[in-house]
Amino acid sequence: xxxxxxxxxxxxxxxxxxxxxxxxxxxxxxxxxxxxxxxxxxxxxxxxxxxxxxxxxxxxxxxxxxxxxxxxxxxxxxxxxxxxxxxxxxxxxxxxxx
Length: 98
Known about the structure:
98 residues, alpha+beta
């Protein structure tokens, strides 16, 4: 199984409604058939050195991850919702045991 983890920091002027829109959009990506599981977590706010959000998505394999990356819903979400408010992003894909 492949785990895709993304950590994001957003623009300071992103309000709670905008953040809710990002989170809702991320959760909607769980409807893409290749997604085995998807979790979105917001930072607990206990450190000023932390990012704002983490996204963890599990796939059967790298081919399923690539299909997700290219899926029109994912592409539109990233370009229309995330990109305009994103300051920084880091991602990693790791093999994990089922």
